[in-house]
Amino acid sequence: MTNPDITRANRRLVPKLFLFSIAMFGFGYLLVPLYDVICDITGLNGKTASSAVAMDGNANGVDTSRTITVEFVSSLNSGAPWEFRPAVTRMQVHPGEFYEMSYVARNLTDQDMVGQAVPSVAPGPAAVHFQKIECFCFDRQDFAPGESKDMPVMFRIDPRLAEHVNVVTLSYTFFKLDPSS
Amino acid sequence: MAATTHDVHDGHGEHHHGPAKGLGRWLFTTNHKDIGTLYLLFSLLMFLVGGSMALIIRAELFQPGLQLVDPHFFNQMTTMHALIMVFGAVMPAFVGLANWMLPMMVGAPDMALPRMNNWSFWILPFAFTMLLSTLFMPGGGPASGWTLYPPLVLQTGDAFPFVILAIHLMGISSIMGAINVIATIFNMRAPGMTLMRMPLFVWTWLITAFLLIAVMPVLAGAVTMLLTDRYFATSFFNAAGGGDPVLFQHIFWFFGHPEVYIMILPAFGVVSQIIPTFSRKPLFGYHSMVYATAAIAFLSFIVWGHHMFTVGMPLTAELFFMYATMLIAVPTGVKVFNWVATMWRGAMTFETPMLFSIAFVILFTIGGFSGLMLAIAPADFQYHDTYFVVAHFHYVLVPGAVFSIMAAVYYWLPKWTGHMYNERLSRIHFWLSVIGVNVLFFPQHFLGLAGMPRRVPDYALQFTEWNMVSSIGAFIYGISQLLFVYIVIQTIRAGDKATDRVWEGAHGLEWTVPSPAPYHTFDKPPKISTADAHG
Ligand code: HEM
Ligand SMILES: [Cu+2]
Question: Between chains, do A45 and B246 touch, taking CB under 8 Å as contact?
Fold first, then answer.
């Protein structure tokens, strides 16, 4: 049973197999950046850019021949003690033009609170064409006890938005953050 | 290799003792047959525990309304049932069969790494004790479904870290087991046992072992991310911190789909051993069987998206995953064809292992067809998360994987124990099982198509009749497994003496050793005759 040939062969093979499984553990983690990159390029998960685009004039021109409905949606992550809603629920917009609207949030507790809004655009592929010049979602939002805030978002729909898309929904979910984090 | 043989016999300190006495034998054993037995007994125990949970589920679903258990406990039952059946019953059963049979089938004296073998087994009782103990913790056990999707799974109570740790242990155990299998097959084959002469059970296990070391670590990564998301403020899946819960689904199913093949490829191997024996013909298309298995394993890495058709993938991804999934039906079809062709004009007899194998071929194929229906992306929007999916995977897993395990036990039990099982009782067990399983799962297709969602403790009234039928089937199937336990115990204790060859049509090295197989076999590598090639 202690055949030296076999022992040697095992000593060569087994570490390779262990290394391979450790590498696959790493591969699991590699899927995280890979996923983010793919989503960034394609906007697949409906995530809009997490920083502002420059207000570069109307580089691609305003397309007044086209009208798109933008719907605004809000939701609270479970247990987030806020009142949170869009000031208007829908707008008619022309691609290329800048618009401003706002969301209203009120801290329902008698404590200081920190919140963060996370945006999502549907349909997913429209996300890359939903450009925000300014957004309350770029930063954490601090609230005094009972404080109410009007939080603006300035956006533009890129005229390159696919032909067949007539309605774009912007949704924010409001999360409670741990003030220390 | 001649020198090798020589070494074995001159090696001093080689004492050919039998097993040690008492509990120590089982705790410290490095013998592949002992460890195989331990795995199989453990798997049987888990099969009964997981089965009892299934019966709780089916009892609750016998009627609409909430009667026996509260919804939170119901959810714990669906989650635990799946985790226990997948990681505790099906996988360890196949590892047990591998331990018992692989060394004998390739003419090796033992597994390549006997001491590690002992560890891979003994981790499991700890892992499952821990998993089961979570049911008694504040907040109860995991209730998110075996797929552990965040954010729901992050709401698990105190049990959460224990569940994750248990999954880590199960993963480590399977990885070690798989490495052992690969090393055994690559390094321990008797001279003359070339790769293309190996029995199909060996081939399918070799490929399964590669799947295991490729995807179990990915699962480990996914659950580690869940753990750090909950306790260490990472945000892999937490949208507030910039993560995305859908990412978890991608990682999970990158593991999950190969995992379902981990549970079925060894089953393919088992029936490929049994059908030729009772058809008294060599396996039809041995080479194509090997290539088909490899093709299935390869494809299993690129189809995970079919579990996620409804999360909002772009059209091109839906199409890719749809066609890639359907492609799997081709090598699978090759296999089914070969099994049928093996039986074609064979001198068939219908002993219990053969009965289970034939049932496997037919019922697994039904599961494959419902899989194809689910693979149609636009149709899956309706089927997804309904009982249709439940019917699909239970057809491939119960009359598929579990029946093949039953077949394997009846087939090799005489070799393990030296006794024949009771043929009459085993046939009763078979017929109760097939009838029970179909009464249990076939109506679930109807329920799913009619729109009954999965993982619910209560349902709309129009689903009542088929749920009742399904629950009756569940109790028939479940209780008839006690007969199986009885038959196995009876065979271990007594029964007609089995011959060495056991089955008239059996080929392969395992049948050349006495029955019961001695504690040590093939200390001296056997000569491989052509008749024994391909087992
Ligand atoms: C021709 C082969 C197969 C095809 C085309 C196929 C296809 C599919 C599809 C599309 C789904 C997702 C359904 C949904 O969630 O909407 C699914 C689920 C599933 N399949 Fe299969 N499948 C096949 C074979 C198998 C085999 C061999 C097994 C296991 C032995 C298996 C086990 C499962 C399991 C466990 C699930 C459900 C996972 C869950 O959501 O909990 N399938 N299958
Ligand atoms: Cu799958």
Answer: yes
- Among chain A residues, CA nearest to B252: A28
Radius of gyration of chain A (CA): 24
Helix/strand/coil percent split, chain A, to 5: 25, 40, 35
Query: Rounded CA gap, B215 and B202, in Å?
Result: 20
Give the start-to-end residue ranges of the domains of chain A: 1-42, 68-177
Mean of the per-residue pLDDT values of chain A? 83
Pocket test for ligand 1, best of B75, B321, B396 (most atoms within 8 A of CB): B396
Look up residue B341 and give its two tokens. 């062709």
Q: What is the ipTM of this complex?
A: 0.87
Q: Beta strand pairing status for A90-93 and A113-122?
A: unpaired
* End-to-end alpha carbon distance in chain B: 23
φ and ψ at residue A17, rounded to 5 degrees: -65, -40
Q: Name the residue with tokens 């933008």.
A: A70
Closest CA to B81 of B60, B110, B100, B111: B60
Nearest ligand atom owner, CA of B264: 1
- B336 Cβ inside 6 Å of ligand 1: no
Domains of chain B: 31-512 (1.20.210.10)
Q: How far apart are CA B57 and CA B81, in angstroms?
A: 9
The pair phi, psi for residue A128, each rounded to 5°, is: -65, -20
- Phi, psi at B253, each rounded to 5°: -80, -20
Nearest to B508 by CA among B203, B236, B237, B120: B203
Q: Which residue of A has its CA nearest to B16?
A: A1
Q: How many whole angstroms separate alpha carbon A137 and alpha carbon A105?
A: 12
Give the environment of ion ligand 2: residues with CB less than 5 A: B 257
- Neighbour-count burial of B294, counting CB atoms closer than 10 A to its CB (0-12 exposed, 13-18 middle, 19+ buried): middle
Mutate to test the interface with A, among B175, B226, B236, B520 (most CBs of A within 10 A): B175
Shortest distance between the Cα of B367 and any Cα of chain A, in A, equals: 30
Q: What is the mean pLDDT of residues A93-122?
A: 87
Question: Which residues, 6+ apart, have CB-to-CB distance to B376 below 8 Å?
Answer: B322
CA distances to B55, B164, B267 from B74, in Å:
11, 20, 30
DSSP line for B19-63: PPPSHHHHHH---HHHHHHHHHHHHHHHHHHHHHHHHHHHHHTTS
Tens digit of pLDDT at every position of chain B (535 positions): 333 333 344 334 444 567 777 788 888 898 999 999 999 999 999 999 999 999 999 999 999 999 999 999 999 999 999 999 999 999 999 999 999 999 999 999 999 999 999 999 999 999 999 999 999 999 899 999 999 998 899 989 899 999 999 999 999 999 999 999 999 999 999 888 889 989 999 999 999 999 999 999 999 999 999 999 999 888 899 877 778 889 999 999 999 999 999 999 999 999 999 999 999 999 999 999 999 999 999 999 999 999 999 987 888 889 999 999 999 999 999 999 999 999 999 999 999 999 999 999 999 999 999 999 999 999 999 999 999 999 999 999 999 999 999 999 999 999 999 999 999 999 999 999 999 999 999 999 999 999 999 999 999 999 999 999 999 999 999 999 999 999 999 999 988 899 999 998 898 899 999 989 999 888 888 887 766 666 5
Is the CB of A166 inside 8 Å of chain B's CB atoms?
no
Chain A: give the shortest CA distance to residue B391, in Å.
30
Tell me the CATH number for domain A68-177: 2.60.370.10
Contact B199, B188 (CB under 8 A): no
pTM confidence score: 0.87
